[in-house]
Write a structure and sequence with these properties.
homodimer, alpha+beta, 4-stranded antiparallel sheet, 3 helices, about 40% strand
């Protein structure tokens, strides 16, 4: 990851019970596709047992985020997301101002 | 949540195998304590089966984040986090510029 500033898209979601197989295939494909977009920096994703999922993707610029948002295959996934896969979601675009990393020393 | 701008603290972590009970108690206490801090807006957290956890907390200002960061009980938790609970983590402070919410219509 570069030194800030860069951008984060914070996507928090609650899945509906519908179509787990279709969702899983598309979720995996979207990660693969995002990684190929201009300005992509990274992605982190977690879904807990309560069904709440958080995916944060990182981008070099707002233009890069816009490009990904308007990608045809991604737009179809977004439509399916609203129509069947998600009970609710929130999407936030944020400018990362500072970042730190920690790694434990090996014993 | 208010209309942007506001701030997000994005904390992504990988747990070490150490002290799961102590970690769980402290993690719960920190959420409770964060909610009592000035400028706290909200928190979302998920940890997947691969051990990757993402917690995003939301704050009204950088001053509010600084206050929480320097809270004595939180500082002790941070120390234990570095010394035993986390194999690695990343911490990012970001300014939320835009936000959208979606909720599926009831059938």
């Amino acid at each position: 990851m570069p030194t800030p500033p860069y951008y984060a898209v914070i996507f928090t979601s609650l899945r509906s019970p519908a179509d787990p197989e279709g969702y899983a295939v598309t979720a995996e494909r979207m990660v693969e596709l995002a990684q190929q977009q201009p300005g992509y920096l990274g992605i982190e994703s977690a879904r807990g047992d309560d069904g709440l999922g958080i995916t944060v993707s990182y981008w070099s610029s707002l233009e890069a985020i816009r490009g990904w948002r308007e990608h045809a295959e991604h737009r179809l996934a977004q439509k399916n997301g609203r129509n069947k896969w998600y009970a609710r979601f929130s999407l936030r675009i944020a400018r990362v101002e500072r970042a730190w990393d920690f790694e434990a020393k090996a014993d």
